[in-house]
Amino acid sequence: MTPTEMEARIVRYGDLKPCKTAFIDAHTPGSDQKENFTIIGGGVSESPDQHVHISVPHGFNIGAAGQPPKCRNSLHDHRTAEAFFVLSGRWRFFWGRWGTAGEVTLEAGDIFNIPTGIFRGFENIGNDYGMIMAILGGDDSGGGVMWAPQVIEEAAEHGLILAETGRLYDSKKGESLPAGVKPMQIMSASELAARPEPTTSDVLPNHVARYWDMVALSDRAPCQVIGQHGLLKDKPGFEVRFATRASAAAAPRQYDKPCVLMPVKGHWRVEWDEGATTLAPGDTMSIPEGLSHSLKPSMTGEAALYQVVATNDSAGLTWSGD
Length: 322
Known about the structure:
Elements: H1 3-7, E1 10-11, E2 35-40, E3 52-54, E4 60-67, E5 72-78, E6 82-88, E7 91-95, E8 102-106, E9 111-114, E10 120-124, E11 130-137, E12 145-147, H2 149-157, E13 160-162, E14 168-170, H3 189-193, H4 200-207, E15 208-209, H5 211-217, E16 223-227, E17 232-233, E18 238-244, E19 259-265, E20 268-272, E21 275-279, E22 284-287, E23 293-297, E24 304-310
């Protein structure tokens, strides 16, 4: 693969194209300043304005959320796995029917494999614009987002209506539901009552990995973070590994599925037979299946990188409440 062909599979941080109307809370005060990015795959955006950078199927989706201080993402759920790692800033994640069942604060490099089947939200509690990178299971991510009822009701008060088709309509722009199309149905009381409400102590040991713990565990070989044998044992349809300068291997490697590289610290040089490139934090690179490549930090100093590869496991629900 030529350097030009490979560059088409790289999304540079500075080239990310945000959408500010991606979801139903786009007009809700406190959430109206967030930016959503769809990097690999179609994602779960509810807006036709969302730009997709790389549409090649990978078996999972990669996205991102950028938010100024005190901006939050409203309570929602997905039908497949959702994992976040913090690229920059300080973030509070919260979950449950009203967002009060539990919470955790994450900083740069930390990762959260959020339990499926629960409403979750997050907010930037730092002092600067922050960015979190997201991994969603499956190529279609289960067909959209499920919102807590109060999110849908509040959005309607600010002019946004979500159709049963999963598309947003903005009355502030003169839009209305097409003939024959109904609003998205709110979950019933029985459906809401059946959803688990795990506490913070239920979630933290099995779903959160801290950056410095992963650095320590990656002193000889990359650390498997999410996977059947990972720190966060799960089979969400993808595996996540974490590499540092100490565990980077310059020896060529290849995979039978596309591999995604996402630096979180330092600069990384990726080499293959026909070329080479350098990645910086916030960049996302898709390595084609079967392509032999090597990677190593290209400068002195701290260096860490996440790697995501699809598995043959189902991308459905994985949280059992155990």
